[in-house]
Amino acid sequence: MSNYISDKVKKTLSKYSLEKIYFIKMNTNLLVELLFIITMLCAALLFTGVTFKFNFVSFIIVFPIIVIYLFGMAYIICALSVVFKNISSFLQIYQFLMMLIIFTPYTKFVILKYLPLNYIVTIYRETIINKQFLLDVTDVNNIFVSYIHSIIYFIIGIIAFHKAIIYSKRNGLLGHY
């Protein structure tokens, strides 16, 4: 009963919907993590002696694919955290799986070719570290397929997030938000 009352009180105290609150929370966390990752990337480049050749055209084409995919995964993770509350162990396993995808070239293991974001990471690796141009590494069809792939993950993430909010409201799981 107290969870029901606290949910009702908290809903009336905030003029913003839960979707807006979670969207702002997710985006601020994403920006903080992005700044941290960029700092760590610069430190790794500095200490390893790998030169960084910035290809603006490749960046403009490929970076939105990664951002759209990451927003989709952020919505999926946010949906899981709304329903299950404590998913830190799942996130640690997910981070290790992402490192497997990022650090292993898909040419060594064919199954990795079909995992999300691996192909784009390979393109980034070739354009930044090996200093090749984007169209030398891949063709336009593969870039288009990668855009479609990331948009699908984004749509799945939004649908999962909205379903999780509805489920949490119905079952009273939003007591401490």
Describe the structure.
By secondary structure, the chain is mainly α. It contains 7 helices and no strands. The protein has helices at about 1-15, 20-50, 55-85, 90-105, 120-130, 135, 140-170. Helix 3 (about 55-85) runs antiparallel to helix 5 and helix 3 (about 55-85) packs parallel to helix 7. The longest helix is centred in the last third of the chain and has 32 residues, at about 140-170. The chain is elongated.
Secondary structure elements and pairings:
Elements: H1 2-13, H2 18-48, H3 56-84, H4 88-103, H5 118-128, H6 134-137, H7 140-171
Helix pairs in contact: 3-5, 3-7
Order of helices and strands: HHHHHHH
Residue share in β-strands: under 5%
**What percentage of residues falls in helices of 4 or more residues?**
over 70%
Multimeric organization: single chain
What is the 3D form? elongated
* Average of pLDDT: 76
| Rg computed from alpha carbons, rounded to a whole number of angstroms | 19 Å
Q: Give the number of helices.
A: 7
User: Whole-Å distance between the termini?
Assistant: 16 Å
Which structural class do the helices and strands define? mainly alpha
What kind of sheet is the major sheet? Answer: none
How many E strands?
A: 0
Low-confidence stretches: none
